[in-house]
Amino acid sequence: MLRFKRLNKNRSEVLVMSQDNSILSLLNIKDENIEISQVENQIRYVGGEKRIIKVLHGRLTYRLTRCPQCGFRSIVKNGTRLTKLRVTSLTGQETRLHLRKQRYLCRNCGQTCGAHTPIVTPNHSITNQVRIRINELARNSLTAEMIAKLVGVSPTSVQRTIYTGRKAFLEHRRLPKILCFDEFRSVHSTFSFICIDAQTHNLVTLLPDRLTKHIVDYFLNQYSLAERQAVEAVTMDLNAQYQHFIHRIFPNAEIIIDRFHIVQLAGRALDQARLAILHELSDHRCRHYKMLKSQWRLFHRNESQLNSQRRQFKRGLNEYLTDQEVVDTITDQFPDFKRVYTSYQTILHAIQEGDTAALKALINHYQPIQSEMDTVISTFRKNWQGIKNACCYQYSNGPLEGIIRKIKQLKRGCFGFKNLAHLFIRIKLIHA
């Protein structure tokens, strides 16, 4: 006998629990009609592999007074039927419950029936606890084969548990006031559309492609004009496709360009200018080449974060220099690069501080220098309202990018998907 002490608010009491009940409690089986009679280890060979399985022998019985068919009090016991159930394990070892269910016979109508337990669905051998465990592991981006090994079932049973009865596409939901738009690579190298709530980060919809017609038709057919007019803003990247139809769907919405993509575009222009200088320098051992090659991160850093007091050893240069000395050496030697670097720093500062006046002044007074920064400024000029809103609003596509990163991790862990519906179901499980 096992003794457990339970502390109550008013007094303490001692509960007496039998060994059978303690086994059921460890397995989280709460059916009091099940009694465990024996526990043993059995050796089985699966695909030539030796496995030791923990087997629990139990019995399910209870008093049945009336026949479920005719309702008469003429029911008697009529033997048992053995069912082999898969249950969860505490140690990772496969565990089976060989349960003998009581059978009953009605002497009035001649019908037979069996005892039922809430731990498993009728006519199934996988318990509800195992199904819950399968869904929990599916949220961790594991493959069906890996989940099957962890819970002790077949990969087909895992797929049937995950995908059966679930809809791939999201049901109609309330339209949030702030939306995030983006796309991700789904199956067969195609891109799918994803939309989330910018405030709660809940999924709004998943569409199998990113065609303008399908996106527009979805929102026009699923939501009324009043719901679409209530949308205040939509955050997105610099994809011009979405900007063309946003106001057709959401007449009152503001377009917010994601701040990360703004800085990323300017950073790429800075890298292109740096690489152009590296290609022009024939002497790869010269000091300037080594600075541009090994200390490239310093040029992407905010000027206010550069160390200008303490000299540090710079790998690749084999010199003790401050961060500011490295940047000043390059900008003094290459005037065109200095202009690109100055423009990048202005953009970085304006985005971080929300200084729309400085950003507008840069766009208005910028002089082309035949570099990638010319294209960046031209893009900013065309998308000025969205970039201005990025400085004024706190919303961004950061939460959506995090979800897309999880989707990429899921695809990588599962070695890709061929079925789009299966991918969407797994995405819904992860984001549930």
UniProtKB/TrEMBL annotation:
Transposase IS204/IS1001/IS1096/IS1165 zinc-finger domain sequence ranges: 65-109
InterPro entries per UniProt: Transpos_ISL3 (IPR047951), Transposase_DDE (IPR002560), Transposase_Znf (IPR029261)
Domain named Transposase IS204/IS1001/IS1096/IS1165 DDE: residues: 179-427
Matches recorded under NCBIfam families: transpos_ISL3 (NF033550)
UniProt-recorded name of the protein: Mobile element protein
